[in-house]
């Protein structure tokens, strides 16, 4: 294991965290979450496509229907992840949204139980209960009751986590036969096409001629282009258990961005819930992949 590989993963996680903060800035300026999501993924696609072209030199890329199907699934999952994440930010704030998205391993574990891929152990059950308790603290459900909750924000945050889990599933299966640059380029091409069908085209066009264009470009480059390249390169010689721990950097970075730059405020109870979720999911991921 090389330190620079670990550094790549850390940098990717930090950039993902910052991208959540940048999206928050753009939303404060009045831009629609779906338009922001579209530009993040489409600009990222351009970066990844350049990576693919460079990677093709001297390398023969295998094309197969199976790889393409899994790549398309991964692309649909990225569309869901980006869109639900930014929608959750607009409704609940960066800190809450980023932490709820980090529940992705919980969905993977639940699916494994459902389809009997893994056995139920006391540690896993306790971990799931603790995470649910952390979500209760983070969202204030214990205090306000379900009727007073921002259901859209919380649901979107959890769906972003579910989408992220689906992306991991699709990417892992596609990468069994296809190389990462090809898989990611197919995934983000799918993302771009799908998102284009759902966005406000007039607002998307206005963004191209607005003074905020530089923020959209920056978001796409660091939030999808560079970050995904760094993450894939970093995983080459970094164990899954170490990567699981490092992944905790993303929601922490996003939360700090929201608190320091956007002026968001978390109560002591919410902060405890955030920490409980991050630590428990990290330990669960580490135990799963060790």
Spell out the blueprint of helices and strands:
Blueprint: H1 3-28, H2 33-55, H3 65-92, H4 94-101, H5 104-114, H6 122-139, H7 141-144, H8 151-174, H9 180-198, H10 201-208, H11 213-235, H12 240-246, H13 249-260, H14 268-289
Helix pairs in contact: 1-3, 1-11, 1-13, 2-3, 2-9, 2-11, 3-4, 3-8, 3-9, 4-8, 4-13, 5-8, 6-14, 12-14
Describe this protein's structure.
- This protein has 290 residues and is mainly alpha-helical.
- Helices cover 80% and strands 0% of the residues.
- The chain contains 14 helices and no strands.
- Helix 1 packs across helix 3, helix 2 (33-55) packs antiparallel against helix 3 (65-92) and helix 3 runs antiparallel to helix 8.
- The radius of gyration is 19 Å and the shape is globular.
- 49% of the residues are buried.
- The mean pLDDT is 81.
């Amino acid at each position: 294991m090389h330190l620079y590989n670990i550094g790549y993963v850390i940098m990717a996680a930090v950039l993902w965290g910052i991208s959540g903060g940048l999206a928050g800035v753009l939303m404060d300026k009045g831009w629609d979450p779906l338009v922001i999501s579209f530009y993040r993924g489409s600009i990222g696609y351009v970066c990844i496509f350049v990576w693919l072209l460079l990677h093709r030199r001297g390398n023969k890329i295998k094309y197969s229907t199976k790889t393409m199907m899994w790549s398309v699934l991964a692309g649909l999952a990225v569309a869901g992840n980006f869109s639900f994440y930014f929608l959750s930010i607009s409704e609940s704030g960066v800190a809450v949204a980023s932490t709820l998205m980090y529940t992705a391993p919980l969905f993977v574990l639940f699916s494994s139980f459902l389809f009997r891929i893994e056995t139920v152990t006391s540690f896993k059950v306790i971990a799931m209960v603790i995470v649910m308790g952390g979500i209760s603290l983070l969202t204030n459900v214990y205090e306000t009751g379900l009727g007073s909750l921002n259901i859209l924000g919380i649901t979107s945050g959890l769906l972003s986590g579910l989408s992220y889990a689906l992306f991991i599933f699709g990417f892992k299966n596609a990468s069994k036969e296809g190389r990462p640059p090809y898989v990611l380029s197919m995934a983000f091409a799918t993302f771009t096409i799908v998102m284009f069908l759902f966005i406000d085209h007039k607002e998307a066009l206005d963004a191209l001629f607005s003074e905020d264009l530089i923020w959209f470009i920056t978001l796409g480059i660091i939030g999808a282009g560079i970050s995904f390249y760094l993450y894939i390169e970093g995983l080459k010689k970094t164990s899954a258990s170490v990567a699981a721990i490092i992944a905790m950097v993303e929601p922490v970075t996003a939360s700090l961005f929201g608190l320091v730059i956007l002026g968001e405020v978390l109560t002591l109870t919410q902060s405890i819930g955030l920490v409980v979720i991050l630590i428990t999911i990290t330990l669960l991921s580490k135990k799963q992949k060790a």
